[in-house]
Protein backbone atom coordinates (compact mmCIF):
# COMPACT_ATOMS: atom_id res chain seq x y z
CA UNK A 1 0.00 0.00 0.00
CA UNK A 2 1.45 3.40 -0.96
CA UNK A 3 1.37 6.77 0.78
CA UNK A 4 -2.00 8.41 1.08
CA UNK A 5 -4.01 5.28 0.25
CA UNK A 6 -7.30 4.83 2.03
CA UNK A 7 -7.96 1.34 3.39
CA UNK A 8 -10.77 -0.33 1.52
CA UNK A 9 -13.89 -2.16 2.73
CA UNK A 10 -14.81 0.13 5.59
CA UNK A 11 -17.49 2.76 6.09
CA UNK A 12 -14.81 4.98 7.58
CA UNK A 13 -11.54 4.02 5.88
CA UNK A 14 -8.23 4.97 7.42
CA UNK A 15 -5.89 7.11 5.33
CA UNK A 16 -2.51 5.37 5.33
CA UNK A 17 0.76 7.27 4.95
CA UNK A 18 3.78 5.03 4.61
CA UNK A 19 7.00 6.76 5.65
CA UNK A 20 8.53 3.55 6.95
CA UNK A 21 12.28 3.05 6.77
CA UNK A 22 13.99 0.59 4.46
CA UNK A 23 14.44 -2.90 5.92
CA UNK A 24 18.20 -2.42 5.47
CA UNK A 25 18.04 0.09 8.36
CA UNK A 26 17.24 -2.77 10.75
CA UNK A 27 20.19 -4.80 9.48
CA UNK A 28 22.59 -1.84 9.57
CA UNK A 29 21.58 -0.78 13.09
CA UNK A 30 21.86 -4.36 14.38
CA UNK A 31 25.30 -4.83 12.82
CA UNK A 32 26.59 -1.53 14.15
CA UNK A 33 24.96 -2.11 17.57
CA UNK A 34 26.62 -5.52 17.93
CA UNK A 35 29.98 -4.05 16.89
CA UNK A 36 29.81 -1.42 19.65
CA UNK A 37 31.07 -1.76 23.20
CA UNK A 38 28.81 -2.26 25.09
CA UNK A 39 26.58 -4.04 22.58
CA UNK A 40 23.18 -2.41 22.11
CA UNK A 41 20.25 -2.55 19.69
CA UNK A 42 17.72 0.35 19.58
CA UNK A 43 14.50 -0.39 21.51
CA UNK A 44 12.32 0.58 18.54
CA UNK A 45 13.16 -2.80 16.96
CA UNK A 46 11.37 -4.62 19.79
CA UNK A 47 8.09 -3.64 18.11
CA UNK A 48 7.46 -5.88 15.14
CA UNK A 49 3.93 -7.33 14.97
CA UNK A 50 4.74 -10.02 17.56
CA UNK A 51 6.52 -7.50 19.78
CA UNK A 52 3.56 -5.10 19.65
CA UNK A 53 1.21 -7.96 20.61
CA UNK A 54 3.45 -8.92 23.52
CA UNK A 55 3.66 -5.29 24.66
CA UNK A 56 -0.14 -5.22 24.71
CA UNK A 57 -0.05 -8.25 27.03
CA UNK A 58 2.55 -6.54 29.25
CA UNK A 59 0.12 -3.64 29.68
CA UNK A 60 -2.37 -6.03 31.31
CA UNK A 61 0.08 -7.64 33.76
CA UNK A 62 -0.51 -7.06 37.48
CA UNK A 63 3.12 -5.97 37.94
CA UNK A 64 3.12 -3.48 35.05
CA UNK A 65 1.69 -0.39 36.77
CA UNK A 66 2.32 2.31 34.07
CA UNK A 67 -0.58 1.53 31.71
CA UNK A 68 -3.33 1.18 34.31
CA UNK A 69 -1.99 4.14 36.29
CA UNK A 70 -1.85 6.45 33.26
CA UNK A 71 -5.31 5.27 32.15
CA UNK A 72 -6.61 5.97 35.67
CA UNK A 73 -5.17 9.50 35.56
CA UNK A 74 -6.95 10.09 32.22
CA UNK A 75 -10.27 8.75 33.53
CA UNK A 76 -10.11 10.63 36.83
CA UNK A 77 -9.15 13.93 35.21
CA UNK A 78 -10.73 13.83 31.74
CA UNK A 79 -12.80 16.99 32.31
CA UNK A 80 -9.89 18.94 33.76
CA UNK A 81 -7.55 17.82 30.97
CA UNK A 82 -10.21 18.83 28.43
CA UNK A 83 -10.59 22.24 30.05
CA UNK A 84 -6.83 22.89 29.94
CA UNK A 85 -6.46 21.66 26.37
CA UNK A 86 -9.13 23.90 24.96
CA UNK A 87 -10.59 23.13 21.55
CA UNK A 88 -8.36 21.17 19.22
CA UNK A 89 -9.12 19.94 15.70
CA UNK A 90 -6.33 17.47 15.30
CA UNK A 91 -4.97 14.83 17.66
CA UNK A 92 -1.55 13.45 16.77
CA UNK A 93 -0.48 10.43 18.81
CA UNK A 94 3.20 9.52 18.62
CA UNK A 95 3.96 5.85 19.28
CA UNK A 96 0.20 5.27 19.26
CA UNK A 97 0.31 1.47 19.85
CA UNK A 98 -3.25 0.27 20.44
CA UNK A 99 -4.59 3.90 20.66
CA UNK A 100 -6.65 2.85 23.70
CA UNK A 101 -5.85 5.76 26.01
CA UNK A 102 -6.57 8.38 23.37
CA UNK A 103 -10.12 7.03 23.18
CA UNK A 104 -10.90 8.48 26.61
CA UNK A 105 -10.14 11.98 25.35
CA UNK A 106 -11.43 11.51 21.80
CA UNK A 107 -14.89 10.85 23.14
CA UNK A 108 -15.04 14.06 25.15
CA UNK A 109 -13.21 16.24 22.59
CA UNK A 110 -14.53 15.04 19.27
CA UNK A 111 -11.68 16.47 17.17
CA UNK A 112 -12.09 16.21 13.40
CA UNK A 113 -8.89 14.20 12.81
CA UNK A 114 -6.76 11.63 14.63
CA UNK A 115 -3.30 10.68 13.40
CA UNK A 116 -1.64 7.62 14.86
CA UNK A 117 2.11 7.55 14.23
CA UNK A 118 3.94 4.28 14.87
CA UNK A 119 6.81 2.17 13.57
CA UNK A 120 4.86 -1.09 13.91
CA UNK A 121 2.93 -1.14 10.62
CA UNK A 122 0.44 -4.03 10.88
CA UNK A 123 -0.41 -3.22 14.49
CA UNK A 124 -0.88 0.46 13.62
CA UNK A 125 -3.21 -0.34 10.72
CA UNK A 126 -5.32 -2.64 12.87
CA UNK A 127 -5.55 -0.24 15.83
CA UNK A 128 -6.41 2.81 13.71
CA UNK A 129 -9.03 0.88 11.71
CA UNK A 130 -10.67 -0.24 14.97
CA UNK A 131 -10.77 3.41 16.01
CA UNK A 132 -12.24 4.52 12.69
CA UNK A 133 -14.90 1.79 12.87
CA UNK A 134 -15.86 2.81 16.41
CA UNK A 135 -15.92 6.56 15.65
CA UNK A 136 -17.46 7.07 12.20
CA UNK A 137 -17.39 10.86 12.74
CA UNK A 138 -13.57 10.86 13.03
CA UNK A 139 -11.16 11.13 10.10
CA UNK A 140 -8.36 8.70 10.99
CA UNK A 141 -4.84 8.66 9.56
CA UNK A 142 -2.22 5.96 10.10
CA UNK A 143 1.34 7.26 9.69
CA UNK A 144 3.94 4.50 9.66
CA UNK A 145 7.29 6.10 10.45
CA UNK A 146 10.41 5.84 12.56
CA UNK A 147 10.13 9.18 14.30
CA UNK A 148 13.59 8.91 15.83
CA UNK A 149 14.88 9.49 12.29
CA UNK A 150 12.36 11.97 10.98
CA UNK A 151 9.23 13.44 12.54
CA UNK A 152 6.87 14.47 9.79
CA UNK A 153 3.16 14.56 9.13
CA UNK A 154 1.18 14.62 5.90
CA UNK A 155 1.09 18.29 4.83
CA UNK A 156 -2.71 18.56 4.84
CA UNK A 157 -2.79 17.46 8.48
CA UNK A 158 -0.76 20.39 9.76
CA UNK A 159 -3.04 22.84 11.50
CA UNK A 160 -2.95 25.70 13.96
CA UNK A 161 -5.15 23.68 16.27
CA UNK A 162 -3.19 20.55 17.02
CA UNK A 163 -2.39 18.60 20.17
CA UNK A 164 0.28 15.92 20.29
CA UNK A 165 0.13 12.93 22.62
CA UNK A 166 3.19 10.99 23.66
CA UNK A 167 1.99 8.47 26.19
CA UNK A 168 3.13 5.33 27.98
CA UNK A 169 6.30 7.04 29.22
CA UNK A 170 7.89 6.35 25.84
CA UNK A 171 9.95 9.51 26.37
CA UNK A 172 11.82 7.46 29.00
CA UNK A 173 13.25 5.24 26.24
CA UNK A 174 15.45 8.16 25.14
CA UNK A 175 18.64 9.14 26.92
CA UNK A 176 17.85 12.58 28.51
CA UNK A 177 19.88 14.49 25.87
CA UNK A 178 18.06 12.64 23.09
CA UNK A 179 14.76 13.28 24.87
CA UNK A 180 15.41 17.04 24.69
CA UNK A 181 16.28 16.78 20.98
CA UNK A 182 13.14 14.72 20.32
CA UNK A 183 10.90 17.14 22.22
CA UNK A 184 12.43 19.99 20.23
CA UNK A 185 11.34 18.10 17.09
CA UNK A 186 7.81 17.82 18.51
CA UNK A 187 7.90 21.57 19.26
CA UNK A 188 8.82 22.24 15.63
CA UNK A 189 6.10 19.90 14.40
CA UNK A 190 3.20 21.34 16.40
CA UNK A 191 4.35 24.98 16.45
CA UNK A 192 4.26 27.72 19.11
CA UNK A 193 1.03 27.87 21.10
CA UNK A 194 0.11 24.22 20.55
CA UNK A 195 0.25 21.57 23.24
CA UNK A 196 1.85 18.26 24.04
CA UNK A 197 0.22 15.85 26.49
CA UNK A 198 2.99 13.56 27.68
CA UNK A 199 3.13 10.58 30.05
CA UNK A 200 6.17 10.58 32.32
CA UNK A 201 6.99 7.74 34.68
CA UNK A 202 8.26 8.89 38.08
CA UNK A 203 11.12 7.73 40.31
CA UNK A 204 9.98 5.18 42.88
CA UNK A 205 10.90 2.17 45.00
CA UNK A 206 13.46 -0.02 43.20
CA UNK A 207 11.84 -3.36 44.13
CA UNK A 208 8.53 -2.16 42.73
CA UNK A 209 10.26 -1.15 39.49
CA UNK A 210 12.14 -4.41 39.34
CA UNK A 211 8.89 -6.42 39.56
CA UNK A 212 7.31 -4.38 36.75
CA UNK A 213 10.04 -5.39 34.29
CA UNK A 214 10.46 -8.98 35.55
CA UNK A 215 6.89 -10.25 35.61
CA UNK A 216 6.17 -13.70 36.97
CA UNK A 217 4.40 -14.85 33.77
CA UNK A 218 7.54 -14.13 31.74
CA UNK A 219 5.81 -11.89 29.19
CA UNK A 220 8.46 -9.15 29.39
CA UNK A 221 11.13 -11.81 28.90
CA UNK A 222 9.29 -13.05 25.79
CA UNK A 223 9.01 -9.45 24.53
CA UNK A 224 12.76 -8.94 24.95
CA UNK A 225 13.75 -12.33 23.48
CA UNK A 226 11.43 -11.74 20.52
CA UNK A 227 14.06 -9.33 19.20
CA UNK A 228 16.34 -12.32 18.58
CA UNK A 229 13.51 -14.25 16.91
CA UNK A 230 12.86 -11.17 14.77
CA UNK A 231 16.54 -11.08 13.75
CA UNK A 232 16.28 -14.75 12.74
CA UNK A 233 13.08 -14.04 10.77
CA UNK A 234 14.17 -10.89 9.00
CA UNK A 235 17.96 -10.69 8.92
CA UNK A 236 19.13 -14.10 7.79
CA UNK A 237 20.47 -14.60 11.33
CA UNK A 238 21.13 -17.94 12.95
CA UNK A 239 20.71 -17.30 16.65
CA UNK A 240 19.90 -19.94 19.24
CA UNK A 241 17.48 -17.91 21.35
CA UNK A 242 17.68 -20.54 24.12
CA UNK A 243 21.23 -19.38 24.74
CA UNK A 244 20.04 -15.98 25.99
CA UNK A 245 18.12 -14.81 29.00
CA UNK A 246 16.15 -11.67 29.75
CA UNK A 247 17.59 -9.39 32.41
CA UNK A 248 16.10 -6.11 33.66
CA UNK A 249 17.26 -4.02 36.61
CA UNK A 250 17.18 -0.47 37.93
CA UNK A 251 20.42 1.43 37.50
CA UNK A 252 20.20 4.08 40.27
CA UNK A 253 23.16 6.18 39.11
CA UNK A 254 21.53 6.62 35.70
CA UNK A 255 17.94 6.72 37.02
CA UNK A 256 16.79 4.11 34.52
CA UNK A 257 15.58 0.56 34.10
CA UNK A 258 17.91 -1.31 31.76
CA UNK A 259 16.77 -4.29 29.77
CA UNK A 260 19.38 -6.71 28.43
CA UNK A 261 19.68 -10.00 26.58
CA UNK A 262 22.41 -11.90 28.38
CA UNK A 263 24.37 -14.75 26.83
CA UNK A 264 24.28 -17.87 29.05
CA UNK A 265 27.23 -19.47 27.25
CA UNK A 266 30.20 -18.67 25.01
CA UNK A 267 28.75 -18.40 21.52
CA UNK A 268 29.06 -16.94 18.05
CA UNK A 269 26.11 -15.10 16.51
CA UNK A 270 25.79 -15.32 12.74
CA UNK A 271 23.95 -12.55 10.96
CA UNK A 272 24.22 -13.03 7.23
CA UNK A 273 27.96 -13.21 6.59
CA UNK A 274 28.92 -11.40 9.80
CA UNK A 275 29.89 -13.16 13.03
CA UNK A 276 29.88 -11.79 16.58
CA UNK A 277 31.47 -13.59 19.53
CA UNK A 278 29.79 -13.41 22.91
CA UNK A 279 31.25 -14.82 26.10
CA UNK A 280 29.20 -16.21 28.97
CA UNK A 281 27.57 -13.21 30.71
CA UNK A 282 28.01 -10.76 27.81
CA UNK A 283 24.93 -8.67 27.23
CA UNK A 284 23.09 -6.82 24.48
CA UNK A 285 21.38 -3.71 25.87
CA UNK A 286 17.90 -3.58 24.31
CA UNK A 287 15.98 -0.87 26.19
CA UNK A 288 16.34 1.88 28.76
CA UNK A 289 13.42 3.36 30.61
CA UNK A 290 14.38 6.56 32.42
CA UNK A 291 12.40 7.55 35.49
CA UNK A 292 12.16 11.24 36.35
CA UNK A 293 11.30 13.38 39.34
CA UNK A 294 8.78 16.11 38.52
CA UNK A 295 11.57 18.64 38.92
CA UNK A 296 13.95 16.79 36.56
CA UNK A 297 11.31 16.51 33.87
CA UNK A 298 10.36 20.17 34.34
CA UNK A 299 13.94 21.13 33.45
CA UNK A 300 13.93 18.84 30.44
CA UNK A 301 10.65 20.37 29.18
CA UNK A 302 12.04 23.88 29.64
CA UNK A 303 15.22 23.02 27.70
CA UNK A 304 13.03 21.73 24.88
CA UNK A 305 11.09 24.99 24.56
CA UNK A 306 7.95 24.01 26.47
CA UNK A 307 6.22 25.48 29.52
CA UNK A 308 4.33 23.11 31.80
CA UNK A 309 0.68 24.08 32.04
CA UNK A 310 -0.53 21.38 34.38
CA UNK A 311 0.60 18.08 35.87
CA UNK A 312 -1.76 15.31 37.00
CA UNK A 313 -0.52 12.35 39.06
CA UNK A 314 -2.07 9.29 40.69
CA UNK A 315 -2.49 9.04 44.45
CA UNK A 316 0.79 7.09 44.83
CA UNK A 317 2.79 9.47 42.64
CA UNK A 318 3.84 6.57 40.41
CA UNK A 319 3.13 8.30 37.12
CA UNK A 320 2.43 11.75 35.74
CA UNK A 321 0.43 13.16 32.84
CA UNK A 322 1.83 16.53 31.87
CA UNK A 323 0.30 19.16 29.61
CA UNK A 324 3.02 21.29 27.99
CA UNK A 325 2.64 24.30 25.73
CA UNK A 326 5.18 25.15 23.02
CA UNK A 327 6.53 28.66 23.73
C1 LIG B 1 5.88 1.86 25.21
S1 LIG B 1 4.88 1.62 23.76
C2 LIG B 1 3.57 2.76 24.13
C3 LIG B 1 2.31 2.48 23.34
C4 LIG B 1 1.12 3.37 23.70
N1 LIG B 1 1.39 4.76 23.42
C5 LIG B 1 0.78 3.22 25.17
O1 LIG B 1 0.85 4.21 25.88
O2 LIG B 1 0.40 2.11 25.58
C6 LIG B 1 5.83 2.49 22.56
C7 LIG B 1 5.14 2.62 21.18
O3 LIG B 1 5.96 3.46 20.36
C8 LIG B 1 6.26 2.82 19.12
N2 LIG B 1 7.62 3.25 18.75
C9 LIG B 1 8.78 2.97 19.40
N3 LIG B 1 9.83 3.56 18.80
C10 LIG B 1 9.31 4.22 17.72
C11 LIG B 1 9.90 5.02 16.69
N4 LIG B 1 11.21 5.26 16.66
N5 LIG B 1 9.09 5.55 15.75
C12 LIG B 1 7.74 5.30 15.78
N6 LIG B 1 7.12 4.55 16.73
C13 LIG B 1 7.90 4.02 17.68
C14 LIG B 1 6.11 1.35 19.40
O4 LIG B 1 5.82 0.61 18.22
C15 LIG B 1 5.00 1.31 20.44
O5 LIG B 1 3.73 1.24 19.84
Describe this structure in words.
This protein has 327 residues and is α/β, with parallel strands linked by helices. The chain has a domain at 13-22 and 54-205 and 291-326: Vaccinia Virus protein VP39 (Rossmann fold, 3-Layer(aba) Sandwich), CATH 3.40.50. It contains 9 helices and 16 strands. A 9-stranded mixed beta sheet has the order 1-2-6-5-4-7-8-16-15, with helices on both faces. It has a 4-stranded mixed beta sheet with strand order 3-14-11-10. Helix 3 packs parallel to helix 4 (100-109). The chain is globular and about 60 Å long. The site of S-adenosylmethionine (SAM) has 20 residues, from helix 2.
What's the layout of helices and strands?
Layout (H helix, E strand, L loop, with lengths): L4 E2 L8 E5 L3 H13 L3 E2 L8 H10 L6 H21 L4 E5 L5 H10 L3 E6 L2 H14 L4 E7 L16 E5 L9 H15 L4 E7 L4 H7 L6 H16 L2 E2 L5 E8 L4 E8 L3 E5 L2 E5 L4 E8 L3 H10 L2 E8 L5 E8 L1
Parallel strand pairs: 2-6, 3-14, 4-5, 4-7, 5-6, 7-8
Antiparallel strand pairs: 1-2, 8-16, 9-12, 10-11, 11-14, 12-13, 15-16
Helix pairs in contact: 2-8, 3-4
Bound molecules: S-adenosylmethionine.
Look at the structure and give the mean pLDDT: 95
CATH H-level superfamily of the domain at 13-22 and 54-205 and 291-326: Vaccinia Virus protein VP39
Distance between the termini: 38 Å
Q: What fraction of the residues are assigned to beta strands by DSSP?
A: 25-35%
CATH domain fold name of the domain at 13-22 and 54-205 and 291-326: Rossmann fold
The ordered H/E elements are EEHEHHEHEHEEHEHHEEEEEEHEE
Amino acid sequence: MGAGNAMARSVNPVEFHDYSAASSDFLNEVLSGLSNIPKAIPAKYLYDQRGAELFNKICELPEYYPTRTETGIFRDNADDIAEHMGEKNIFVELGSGNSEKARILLESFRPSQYLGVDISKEFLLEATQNLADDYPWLQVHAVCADFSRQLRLPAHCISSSIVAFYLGSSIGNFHPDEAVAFMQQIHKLIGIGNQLLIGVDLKKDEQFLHAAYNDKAGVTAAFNLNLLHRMNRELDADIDVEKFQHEAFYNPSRGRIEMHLVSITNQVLKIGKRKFSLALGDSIHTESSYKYSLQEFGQLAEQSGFRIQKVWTDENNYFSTQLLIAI
